[in-house]
Design a protein that fits this description.
Blueprint lengths: L1 E10 L6 H19 L3 E9 L3 H10 L3 H18 L6 E4 L3 H16 L3 E11 L4 E3 L18 E10 L5 H9 L4 E2 L1 H12 L5 E2 L1 E2 L15 E2 L1 H5 L2 H5 L9 H6 L6 E5 L3 H14 L8 E4 L2 E3 L2 E2 L10 H8 L1 H10 L7 E3 L1 H30 L15 H18 L3 H22 L1 H4 L6 H22 L4 H10 L10 H4 L25
Parallel strand pairs: 1-2, 1-11, 2-3, 7-12, 11-12, 13-15
Antiparallel strand pairs: 4-5, 4-6, 6-8, 9-10, 13-14
Bound molecules: 5'-O-[(L-methionyl)-sulphamoyl]adenosine (MSP).
Length: 511
């Protein structure tokens, strides 16, 4: 059994923005957590390359669309490398394999008698690649997301019989686990209750797309094409590619993680398409919130877009990961504030976790010949052991229900409690009396052990910081052995050498 997690396939009209990095980082953390928990993960990401929006972007630049797509796709690939994204499959919808899948899928849907020719009239947003309501039927009405005029379309298109799947979709979305978070689920229930309309799946005015077999001048609607990327991805490397092959490789997806703006496509259109093709529906669609900057919507026209590359080079990926994953509840909107960012990184990572490790390791080195002390009367003092066990259990529960912020806070609370323990015990006073030596050794052992667990729990969230902590504790983590097993209390080896402490993260300065 595989655990399949997907990011949206990003439009290649531009390089990645903070929103795309945000979704991808969340998926990366979940994928890392699931792998560490022993699951066989297929983490799918990639790019959505066809359609009017991309055709126009390339034509405005005066370049061939394929060259444009190659250029931007490479930027995405480089960016995923820079951010250390541990994806397993990167889909490009201009690949031959993908085209093959779209054709095969279309044949299946046609066989189910779900395709017919009709006339599509309506107001279209090229930015969203979606027909929109235009309350006044006015040519100056702007898409609320892209703030650009809608375009009137009136053309012959192929239609997909979405309406046929009304009751099956109702059943699906009535399951509380299918759409998360709850508020988003209610939006979709409301939308579906108004009655589903068939939607058009081909275009006659877009040459940059996959040709519909046997129908001249028609290319597939970009969403009908792109959603299939999730399926073609599970089979991309195979010679014998077919939908059947994808199913064998673990389809359906366990979770599609997407932004709230594209929920309808994933939670309504996509499941119906899969039903029609006789394939299983995804198990969960999770719509995350939107990021704003200092309380304002980010946009090119506002000139306040936050360049993720700039953040990366200025603060490093661990700081950005921690802020986005710990400070924003998955599903809610989030705001990027520079002051808050600096405060959180300094408080949580540099002071609470970093200092704890540094000062304990320094004490241990000073009093116990540069080594981890013995845990002589460990059983008499199990305060931290209990805290740690409870933390591990809560953290896993939260991670498994995609509450990454709560999981991160569990780690932070363990660090806070460990600091409190140290301050209460005051080993620096006890050590003055030789009689207390074994008591001090136990206190220090407990604190170092708790720090080891903190480091291990950070692994899916902040992989680099986690390995720095591990290094400071004498490189104990063994990636060939079970992570779960290593989370058990008491694995820190007494007498093992502690290297000279180094700060695990630099303190940040305000702008
Ligand atoms: N190509 C489609 C997805 C097809 S999936 C088969 C698409 N691409 S996109 O590049 O426009 O958007 C990708 C994701 O970025 C969406 O999930 C969208 O919600 C998200 N975001 C765009 N702006 C965002 C923020 N400001 N904040 C957070 N996420 C945002 O849609």
């Amino acid at each position: 059994m595989s655990f399949i997690i997907t990011t949206p396939l990003y439009y290649v009209n531009d390089k990645p923005h903070l929103g795309s990095i945000y979704t991808t980082l969340i998926c990366d953390s979940i994928a890392r957590f699931k792998r560490l928990s022993g699951e066989n993960v297929i983490f799918i990401t990639g790019v959505d390359e066809h359609g009017l929006k991309i055709q126009r972007t390339a034509s405005n630049k005066g370049v061939d669309p394929q060259l444009h797509c190659d250029e931007i796709s490479n930027i995405f690939l480089q960016s995923w490398k820079d951010w250390d994204i541990t994806y397993n499959k990167f889909v490009r919808t201009t690949s031959k394999t993908h085209e093959y899948f779209v054709n095969e899928f279309y044949r299946r849907v046609k066989k189910s008698d779900d395709i017919y020719m009709g006339v599509q009239k309506g107001w279209y947003c090229v930015g969203c690649e979606e027909f929109k309501d235009n309350p006044d039927n006015s040519p100056t009405y702007k898409c609320p997301i892209h703030k650009k005029n809608l375009e009137w379309k009136n053309e012959e298109n192929l239609f997909f019989k979405l309406s046929k799947y009304q009751s099956q979709i109702e059943d699906l979305i009535s399951q509380p686990s299918f759409i998360q978070p709850k508020e988003r689920r209610n939006e979709i229930i409301n939308f579906v209750s108004k009655g589903l309309n068939d939607f058009s799946i081909s275009r006659t005015n877009v040459s940059w797309g996959i040709s519909v077999p046997d129908i001249e001048n028609h290319t597939f609607y970009v969403w009908f094409d792109a959603l299939l990327g999730y399926v073609s991805a599970t089979s991309l490397d195979d010679k014998d590619t077919s939908l059947q092959e994808s199913i064998k490789n673990g389809w359906p997806a366990d979770i599609h993680l997407i932004g709230k703006d594209i929920l309808r496509f994933h939670a309504v259109y996509w499941p119906a398409m899969l039903l029609s093709a006789g394939m299983e529906m995804p198990k969960k669609v999770f719509g995350h919130g939107f990021l704003t900057r200092e309380g304002q919507k980010m946009g090119k026209s506002l000139g306040n877009v936050l360049d993720p590359n700039l953040l990366l080079s200025k603060y490093g990926k661990e700081a950005v990961r921690w802020y986005l994953l710990k400070d924003i509840t998955l599903g809610s909107d989030g705001d990027f504030q520079n002051k808050r960012f600096v405060d959180i990184i300094n408080n949580d990572l540099a002071n609470t976790i970093g200092n704890l490790l540094n000062r304990t390791s320094s004490m241990s080195r000073k009093w116990f010949e540069n080594r981890v002390p013995n845990n002589e009367n460990l059983n008499k003092d199990n305060t931290l052991e209990l805290h740690s066990n409870e933390t591990v259990a809560n953290y896993k529960k939260h991670f498994n229900s995609y509450e990454l912020d709560l999981a991160a806070n569990n780690i932070l609370n363990l660090a806070i409690n460990t600091n409190l323990y140290l301050n209460e015990k005051q080993p620096w006073i006890l050590i003055k009396d030789e009689e207390n030596r074994s008591l001090v050794s136990t206190i220090i052992y407990n604190v170092l052990e708790s720090t080891r667990i903190i480091g291990l729990l950070l692994l899916p969230l902040l992989p680099d910081l986690s390995s720095k902590i591990d290094h400071q504790l004498g490189s104990l983590y063994d990636d060939k052995k079970s992570w779960n097993e290593q989370l058990n209390w008491g694995k820190l080896k007494p007498k093992s050498i502690l290297p000279v402490p180094n700060p695990i993260i630099d303190k940040l300065e305000y702008e």
